[in-house]
Design goal:
Layout: E1 12-13, E2 17-18, E3 28-33, H1 46-50, H2 53-62, E4 68-74, H3 86-102, E5 107-112, H4 114-121, E6 128-134, E7 158-164, H5 172-185, E8 189-194, H6 205-221, H7 227-234, E9 243-244
Parallel strand pairs: 3-4, 3-5, 5-6, 6-7, 7-8, 8-9
Antiparallel strand pairs: 1-4, 2-4
């Protein structure tokens, strides 16, 4: 597919949420990528960009004592635009910019929908230690489908995918098949299914945000994980890639950790 012309403008980082400007030094960062449509070279809508701010604030609060800062990304274009994959390029630029601003700190790429796909593709940038993909929009895989997205860039990164089973916008089975391919090359990947939830993961948003914070903080700062997440990372397919997200996750003992995840 031919690349579409792009207006002469650059991606931007949104205002920092979290440790920056406080006494706590910045020790880790999340680059947060919003959803978007398959095509469109117009500037990203402010409402679309703002949709990730509740998650940004939740992660920043959870990681305050660790020195976590969160930046959303303002895309050059609102859409993916075929092989141009503009959001993936913007994500890679954003990681480099965060490292330039804060130095050699661990970075998590996190996104929803189209932004989740961008996060997965840009994960090969130096500094990226983990990827959080919520309801990722991924191309169909199969005999008559185009080439699937690569997974080699995820080697050495810890990866969490989360998908609602009633998502009518992005196919949960595609994220499962993608996770299967990642797992063959990278043991540190798991996937949670949010039963009866849709694309926006609103029905169980408290549990999804708690899982996201558990994963991000445990990965960036080696704090260890809650038992469900630790079990999901350790479990072989298909169990570790179809782990149900239990109602009330994170509510009983907020922020609790079971210790460092054993690796090796």
């Amino acid at each position: 597919m031919a690349q579409q012309a792009v207006p002469a403008r650059g991606a931007r980082l949104g205002r920092a949420v979290g440790a920056t400007g406080r006494r706590t030094a910045v020790s880790g960062a999340v680059v947060l990528l919003a959803d978007g449509p398959p095509a469109g070279t117009e500037r990203q809508s402010p409402l679309t960009a703002a949709a990730v701010l509740p998650l940004a604030r939740h992660l920043a609060r959870a990681g305050h004592d660790d020195g976590l800062v969160v930046h959303s990304v303002r895309y050059r274009c609102r859409g993916w635009n075929g092989s141009a994959a503009h959001p993936a390029e913007d994500a890679a630029w954003a990681v480099d910019e965060v490292v330039r601003r804060y130095g050699d700190i661990p970075v998590c790429l996190a996104g929803t929908g189209m932004g989740a796909r961008a996060a997965l593709l840009a994960a090969g940038r130096p500094g990226v230690g983990c990827v959080l993909a919520l309801a990722p929009w991924l191309p169909a895989e199969g005999k008559d489908a185009p080439d699937p997205d690569p997974v080699k860039q995820l080697a050495g990164r810890r990866v969490l995918l989360v998908h609602g089973t009633n998502d009518e916008r992005t196919d949960p089975e595609q994220s499962y098949r993608y996770a299967q391919r990642v797992k063959k090359a990278n043991r540190d990947v798991c996937r949670f299914e949010v039963h009866s939830d849709g694309h926006r993961l609103q029905q169980h948003r408290a549990e999804v945000r708690a899982l996201a914070a558990d994963f991000v903080l445990g990965s960036l700062f080696e704090r260890g994980f809650s038992r469900p997440l630790e079990d999901a990372l350790a479990a072989p397919p298909p169990l570790g890639l179809r782990m149900p997200l239990a109602a009330g996750f994170g509510a009983a003992v907020p922020g609790a950790r079971t210790g460092r995840l054993r690796r090796g």
